[in-house]
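Supplementary Methods, section 5.1.

A reviewer requested that the exact input to the structure prediction be made available. We therefore reproduce it here, unchanged from the version used in the analyses.
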Amino acid sequence: MQGVLREVGSWLKINGEAIYGSRPWKVYGEGPTKIVEGAFHDTDAQPFTERDFRFTTKNDALYACELGWPSTGEAMIRSFAAAQLGGRKITSVSLLGSTSPISFESDLAGLQLHLPAQVLGKYAHCFKINFDSAHP
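The structure derived from this sequence is encoded token-by-token as follows.
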């Protein structure tokens, strides 16, 4: 049990800014994996994929926690299509806990991220999306 708590603590040390003091975004998340609710369903759960994201917001930043790391080095967040962001222009994307820059393209299909080759940790990976301060 102590090992699990230490792992959660280590994850929160890196990704806590996407959790503590944050609020839900207008969409809770996206992805194909369905959560099985109710008692005695833990063995029915499917593993999360690189297309599963959960979203939070804090101050003027938007956070996207990817629940599986893509083997292709690319991630697409469809909920962050230009039309969904209300005219706000993305100025930067960073991966919490990493110093590697994250290049990106934003269009009507979504936000395409080009990820570093090395995976950080073994759980969800949180991206911080910053916007131009002169948004409508």
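Residues 2-15 form the longest helix (14 residues). These observations are discussed further in the main text.
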